[in-house]
Design a protein that fits this description.
The chain is mostly helical and 84 residues long. Helix content is 75%, strand content 0%.
């Protein structure tokens, strides 16, 4: 669900994930793309995909990092059984 939100409202999705600086950067990207599109009579409107892709990548990386940290913590605390 967060990925759908990231596609349609990238800064909001990044704020929900707690990525404040990425949300600000994403908002700046959106403004730049809209200004560029307006100046070129919507020739570059497809560039609106860039902020959405940025948000999706940042959210995926954050979730992967969280999962990795949980796995490392479980291994350190001995809650994880390693079969060989």
């Amino acid at each position: 669900m967060i990925y759908v939100l990231a596609f349609f409202l990238p800064p909001l999705a990044l704020l929900i994930e707690g990525k404040i600086f990425s949300a600000i950067f994403n908002l700046i990207l959106i403004v730049l793309v809209i200004v560029l599109s307006l100046l070129t009579l919507f020739t570059f409107a497809f560039l609106l995909l860039i902020p959405s892709l940025h948000a999706i990548i940042v959210i995926a990386q954050a979730r992967r990092r969280r999962e990795h940290e949980e796995l490392v913590e479980a291994a350190r605390s001995g809650r994880m059984r390693i079969d060989r």
